[in-house]
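Quick question, first post here. What does this chain look like in 3D?
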Amino acid sequence: MTLLLTQMTDSKELTEIPVPHTPANLAPEDASPTGQLEPTEALMEELRAKSEELETATPQEIIAWAAQRFGTKLTMGTAFGPEGCTILHMLSEIAPETPVFNLDTGYQFKETLELRDRIAEKTGIEVALLKPETTVEEYEKLHNGPLYITNPTQCCADRKLSVLKKAAVGMHAWISAIRRDQSPDRARAPIVGWDKKFNLVKINPLANVDKSWVWGMITKHDIPYNPLHDQGYTSIGCWPCTRAVMAGEDERAGRWSGTEKTECGLHTLDEDD
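> Answer (accepted):
Ran it through. Tokens below.
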């Protein structure tokens, strides 16, 4: 089986280069007896060097490297933002067998869930919906009401982070769609690094691109996107914690508006997260 690496040539046209899709190429000392990846000194040095090397690579080249390096142990998480949809388009051309998941908290916009079906029709990738152990009704009854009002950080931890921690078991690497220019915390993200929160290698193919590049890809390739973006929702999460932004506001200003919270916790780099 081969992958297709979409690469920019000097003429800025896209070419396709076959890339072999191999199983995860790991040294024995990199994996535990259970098959879980371990942050050995050798692995950490490899990731540091590779991240530095890929700083000037295209997103397509980064994705192709990840697929070749981690094979069937690579996965991707998406909330169906414009960045995620763009990666899904590239993934469908480079490594379409890669399993992709969405953390379905039970609070997602209906437009987001409908987009999942449109993405499947366009790319052939069926994104798995990973759900918490409790339904929204059960969860709110357990906490005497919506926890997103009184403790949104705990709500994110229970309905997102804990779900991903379980899904990460058995995998070695995951692709995210963050950009460095989205927030001060994301500005520190490497192209490739160790995600200690989930014990996975984390690959950020879009770290060095900006919003205009993403929307340029969406326009050029007719990539499906959430119609809420046309209504002023520049960043979309759960409906209770998302609003449209006003002119001049930061693109993530509509998330957890009125609170000091700016991230759900999936992409923060602080030691205690």
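The chain has eight helices and eight strands.
The two ends are 39 Å apart (CA to CA).
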